[in-house]
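Below is a filled-in request sheet from our internal design queue. Each sheet records the structural input a requester submitted and the sequence that came back. We keep these sheets so that new team members can see what a complete request looks like end to end.

REQUESTER: design group, bay 2
PRIORITY: normal
MODE: inverse folding
CHAIN LENGTH: 450
BACKBONE (tokenized):
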């Protein structure tokens, strides 16, 4: 079966002849701004493996950029969607009620680590929509106009979330942008000010947040502080718990809501069902969680989860949408939660992460170009530098590695504000043998590149 296969390239070159033809067609009708550098045109996919139209088999360490934690075409998800499709595809939830929406909301409310005893859930379609609705919910509750976000953050490509996103390559030429979005420094400890201890650096980054109140928006006008528990596009940088405690304290003191953007970190990716479970264990749970990506195994769905008190303060008509909580997506979402629990994918994420840290950590010792290895569970970033002393970013080698690995049947992707991080987001159903095959291809590519 494909899901048990290992990478295998059967064509003389990549892309193969059939893939090349499809990619030419893509070039003719798809905008250049929707960029793709990979030579893979999917024919079918199972687990962590993709077979292309020419019969080449690729190992997927990208997972639809964090969408496929339960793997490609999980048979239980396929059955759940097929069964739902025989009943009805869609009924707008403002018009007719369908039970899958309620069931999934009940299950997410029961497990989400947000403050409050009673919780409510709304569904949308994408991560950007979840983030934007989380902001609207925070404003509706606090009656305040402004929000604070962070350097390195990525929240989407709608006009508001594009403004919230730090890297302006994602917003080039798109202004003017909405007002009321202010930015503080995120604790990127690998690149903290030279000579600073980690403890002093945490204080430095906390002070950066407090300075926003002095230089941009007084605290009484801030509705929410929005942050990723582990930055995705920013370079897979985990938020230090001591810093999170300080942010939580500031929010409590100033009446500000803390919003966890768990679009990429949710659904067993980080060794917990939600990464903010680590926050809750430390006594600093968020007030709102926005999540998407792996929530429905590839069917478009996203969610915002918060306390009943906060959710019910939102003015009527300001949240919702035609497709939010689509019946097919909710059926898939229910099955995803079942599969994660039944197949112990939270524990599997921790196992995969432990093995990755062992291997990637050994590369950090062996290779001058591997500057840092960091992450949570099976969400891991490897930062490449020109040398360890200066930490000068090395985006060139990352581009070479992405291309070289693809030619050998391993799909990897870059990240980071300097484009010098490789992110690990393999489906959690990856086998040990496939994982080791990926390590071999990746390390050989590093050796060749240096």
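RETURNED SEQUENCE:
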């Amino acid at each position: 079966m494909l899901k048990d296969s290992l990478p295998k390239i059967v064509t003389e070159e990549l892309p193969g002849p059939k893939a090349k033809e499809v990619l030419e067609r893509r070039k003719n009708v798809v905008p250049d701004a929707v960029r793709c550098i990979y030579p893979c045109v999917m024919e079918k996919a199972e687990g962590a493996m993709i077979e292309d139209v020419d019969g080449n088999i690729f190992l997927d360490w990208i997972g639809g950029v964090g969408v496929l934690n339960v793997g490609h075409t999980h048979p239980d998800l396929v059955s759940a969607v097929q069964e739902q499709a025989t009943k009805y595809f869609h009924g707008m939830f403002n018009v007719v009620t369908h039970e899958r929406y309620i069931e999934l909301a009940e299950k997410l409310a029961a497990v989400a680590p947000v403050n409050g005893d009673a919780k409510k859930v709304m569904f949308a379609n994408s991560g950007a929509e979840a983030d934007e609705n989380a902001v609207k919910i925070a404003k509706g509750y606090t009656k305040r106009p402004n929000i604070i976000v962070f350097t390195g953050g990525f929240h989407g490509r709608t006009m508001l979330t594009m403004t919230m996103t730090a890297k302006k390559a994602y917003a080039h030429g798109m202004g003017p942008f909405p007002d009321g979005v202010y930015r503080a420094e995120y604790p990127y400890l690998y690149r903290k000010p030279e000579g600073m201890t980690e403890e002093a650096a945490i204080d430095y980054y906390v002070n950066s947040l407090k300075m926003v109140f002095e230089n941009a928006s007084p605290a009484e006008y801030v509705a929410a502080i929005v942050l990723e528990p582990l930055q995705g596009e920013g370079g897979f940088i985990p938020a230090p718990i001591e810093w999170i405690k300080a942010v939580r304290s500031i929010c409590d003191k100033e009446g500000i809501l803390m919003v966890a953007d768990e679009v990429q970190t949710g659904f067993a990716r980080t060794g917990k069902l939600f990464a903010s479970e680590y926050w809750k264990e430390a006594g600093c749970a968020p007030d709102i969680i926005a999540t998407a990506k792996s929530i429905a195994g590839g069917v478009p769905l996203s969610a915002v989860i918060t306390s009943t008190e906060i959710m019910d303060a939102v003015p009527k008509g300001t949240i919702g949408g035609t497709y939010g909580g689509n019946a097919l997506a909710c059926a898939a979402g229910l099955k995803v939660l079942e599969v994660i629990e039944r197949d112990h994918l939270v524990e599997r994420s921790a196992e995969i992460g432990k093995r990755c840290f062992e291997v990637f950590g050994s590369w950090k010792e062996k290779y001058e170009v591997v500057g840092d290895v960091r992450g949570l569970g099976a969400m891991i970033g490897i930062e490449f530098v020109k040398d360890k002393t200066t930490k000068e970013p090395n985006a060139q080698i990352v581009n070479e590695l992405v291309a070289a690995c693809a030619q050998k049947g391993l799909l990897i992707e870059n990240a980071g504000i300097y484009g010098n991080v490789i992110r690990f987001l393999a489906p959690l159903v990856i086998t040990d043998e496939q994982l080791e095959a990926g390590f071999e291809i990746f390390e050989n590519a590093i050796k060749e590149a240096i």
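SHEET NOTES:
- The two ends are 36 Å apart (CA to CA).
- The mean pLDDT is 97.
FILED BY: M.R.
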